[in-house]
Amino acid sequence: MSTVTEDLPAREAVKVLAAQDLPGLIVVDPRNRPLTVLAGTQLLRLALPAYCQDDPALARVVDEAAADLILDGLGERTVADLLPRTRPELPAVDAAATVLEVASVMARSNVPLVAVVAKDKTMIGAITLDGLLDRMLGT
Amino acid sequence: MSTVTEDLPAREAVKVLAAQDLPGLIVVDPRNRPLTVLAGTQLLRLALPAYCQDDPALARVVDEAAADLILDGLGERTVADLLPRTRPELPAVDAAATVLEVASVMARSNVPLVAVVAKDKTMIGAITLDGLLDRMLGT
To answer: Which residues between 18 and 77 in chain B have a beta carbon less than 8 angstroms from any beta carbon of chain A?
Structure first.
């Protein structure tokens, strides 16, 4: 299950994201209750040096090997340091959610990953956009 | 290559998205030049009935089999009908782009899919977030 905790170094979080085939990371508290979902592109945006985001053309003049810049740029920051101050609504459903409900939550969050939580709010699974579409279309 | 044209029925576009493992669709013109990239979650949002987006809890009261609602709701609309009026900046790079440049373009667009275009602006490939991270981290 692709969860990370807030105290995990951001560099490690990027590696977790890369090592799995999921489109984002679910951030959980120490009791395994989802706090927020970080889309992979959000993580990328938070990790990139500011000058790259302002003008991608500038990134071209940086040497190719400078991709390491991204990991180095994360420095000692943790996942908590990367999270926006105002956290977006947690995309989560309970185990009884219908396909349409999952689709609605996913569409609202704009992140292709929804946490499934038990009654005590602990995480019991995750649903990706791919999984949802497969379920919807029977593919 | 996961491209669709503007005249493709939206129902078919959802099936193309489901049939592949890419996180979105690249919309091309008749000469195979990318026009815009639709993230899977964007497609979902555009396809869902409005009442589901306003309040996911309402979606729960709809019968499970009503997931078909989504496809039926698309009706006769085409991909062009689904695209927002003001199209966001096309996430595209040329074949000489550096890893950092691809990351910058992807972070700006917030879509984990970037088109790679030739000098004549025709599409020659696509880079996903997964592919980018694998390249960056050597995984």
So the answer is: 18-19, 21, 23, 39-42, 44-45, 48, 52-53, 56-57, 59-60, 62-64, 66-67, 69-71
